[in-house]
Amino acid sequence: MMLRSALLALALTAAPFAAQAEPAVIIPPPAAEAPAQGTGLETAVLAGGCFWGIQAVYQHTKGVTNAVSGYAGGAQKDADYQAVSSGRTAHAEVVQVTFDPKQISYGKILQIFFSVAHDPTQLNRQGPDSGTQYRSEIFPQSEAQAKVAKDYIAQLDAAHVYKRAIATKVGAVATPFYPAEDYHQDYAVLNPHQPYIVINDAPKVVNLKTLFPDVWRDAPVTVAKAGGVGG
Questions:
Q1: Quick check: is 50 catalytic?
Q2: What are phi and psi of 143, to 5 degrees?
C-alpha cells in the first residue's frame, strides 16, 4: 500500500471501534522532570503491547524525530519476531522513541505513554494480545529517566487515576534495544485499513490528537522518512 499520511484514514476508520481499544485516561504530568542529558537528541524505550500502536502514537507526536519498533529485555540472538512471539524469550515488543528535548520532554513522552498509548494496569497483555512479550515496561536510558519513571508511577498510583494499580515495570538502565524486522516498521501508516489497526491502534492516534493537541502533528514521522532504524 502506498505510503500516506495516516491522519485522515485513521480518523475516519477509528470512531466506530473506539470502545474496543484500551481507553484513554486523562492524567497529570510528572511532578518532576528528567534533566536534559546534553544538547542533542534523546531516546526513550517503551513497551506497551503490540509495537504497531505505540509506534503510530509517537509518529504523530511533535518533537519526535523517529519511532522504531523493536525488542528489549532479552538476548540479541532471540531478537526476532518468531522467537519473541513464542513468549519464551525475555523480550518485550518495544518502541525506541528518539526525541528533541527542546521540543518535548521525557515527562511528556511518559504522560502520553500512560494516557493514550496503552493501558498500564494490564499485566502481560494489551487488548487482544497476551503474553510477557506484551507487558508494560519502561526501559530507561539513564538513571535520571529511571527516577522520573519510578516517581511518576508512584505519583499516578497515589492519585488513583486508574481503577487498578499500575502494572508497568521499570527495567534496567540502558537495556539493549534491537530493531524489529523491516515489515513491522511504519506498519500502521502503511496499513491503515487492516482490521487490527482499525480496531486497536487507530483510536489511540485519535485520542492523542484529542487529549494532547499541543504536541499533535498531522503528518507522521516515519522510519522511512527518518532514514531507517538508525535515523
A1: yes
A2: -65, -35
Catalytic residue among 45, 50, 112, 116: 50
pLDDT in tens, 50-79: 999 999 999 999 999 999 999 999 999 999
- Crossing angle, helix 202-211 and helix 51-59, to 10 degrees? 30
Task: Decide if pLDDT at 231 tops 70.
Answer: no
Q: Is 31 exposed, middle or buried (0-12, 13-18, 19+ CB in 10 A)?
A: exposed
Domain limits of the chain? 6-21+38-213
Round to whole Å and give the CA distance between 201 and 170.
24
- The domain made up of 6-21+38-213 has a fold known as Peptide Methionine Sulfoxide Reductase; Chain A (3.30.1060)
CB 215 within 8 A of CB 105: no
Of 1-15, 55-69, 137-151, 195-209, the poorest mean pLDDT is in 1-15
DSSP state of 171: -
Mean per-residue pLDDT of the chain: 91
d(CA 225, CA 105): 22
Q: Higher-confidence residue: 38 or 28?
A: 28
Cβ neighbours of residue 38 closer than 8 Å, sequence gap 6 or more: none
How many other CB atoms are there within 10 angstroms of residue 137's CB atom?
Answer: 21
Min mean pLDDT across 39-43, 184-188, 200-204, 225-229 is at 225-229
Cβ burial of 16 (10 Å; 0-12, 13-18, 19+) is: exposed
